[in-house]
Amino acid sequence: MSKLSVVVGDYAHARPLAVDGYEVEPVEVKPVIGAYRRMIRDLEFDVCELAPTSYLMALQAGVRLTGIPVFLNRRFHHADVQCGAASGIRFPGDLKGKRIGVRAYTVTTGVWVRGILRDEYGLDIDTVTWVVDDDDHIEGRAPGNVERVSDGRSLGELLRAGEIDAAFSGNAGTGRAGAPRAGWSAPAEQPAGEDGPYPLFPDHEVLAADWYLRTGIYPLHSVIAIRGDLVDSDPGLPSALYAAFAESKRRQAEAAPEWSALPRLGKQAKQIGGDPIPYGLRANDVSVRALVKFSRDQGLLDADFPDEPRRLFADGDYPDA
């Protein structure tokens, strides 16, 4: 039986994983983001979770990988922009000409948020200086209005010092420092309040729900990628791998019916009125097309890059799951 090295994050709905015809060898990489670049640049693993934007850019760059429409993590992004206490920012239009911190320009969270700011609120994202403290997984596509932190300080430190006007929160910004590595973390983010950063959208949950109802876009993360040579030698592998992820999720739901009621997933299930982690092509058609559009608009994908989901994943059987 062939062995299959698999790297995914710590998701209850993705373990255990049993793929027909293969012996699965889980590979732990913490943080899992640290595996993305290793997969894209060196094809180090047989199967690896990737950021969706990085996956699309890798396809465009001709990296020998393909994928299946399994998105292990989903989240809305209206809460992700935190404004400096003295920035004076009150509305999205106030971001024009400002300096905003983000881990790397091509991180998927950044693509989603810039797309929302551009399409929903009319912000000219080219007027913003994007301040980064890490490399892109695929380099050469970031625009000229990206500035690299040169003195080793974290984005959180810069935000508190008033040297950037706003920043993304969590792993996309102030919740860590530098490139992903073991023990990847930064000092605790400064609590919101009179002297700390505050959200650009205080009513972010209402806005996210309204946006979803109007657009049908449910921002996707964590797509599953496979080495292309493995699919060449076994064209049935994508379908078998998809079935394995679907079965793992089904078993988790059966063993622990409350799994999708965890605070964030439960909230998102209510916002979309259904499964908070949907798999498949049909269930994710609108969201995949939106991510391609945002990535093209932001210069990360060529204008003629396809947005038809069937063309972006390996041939296979992918019933909604």
UniProtKB/TrEMBL annotation:
SUPFAM superfamilies: Periplasmic binding protein-like II (SSF53850). Residues 171-191 are annotated as: Disordered. This is 4,5-dihydroxyphthalate decarboxylase. It comes from Amycolatopsis acididurans.
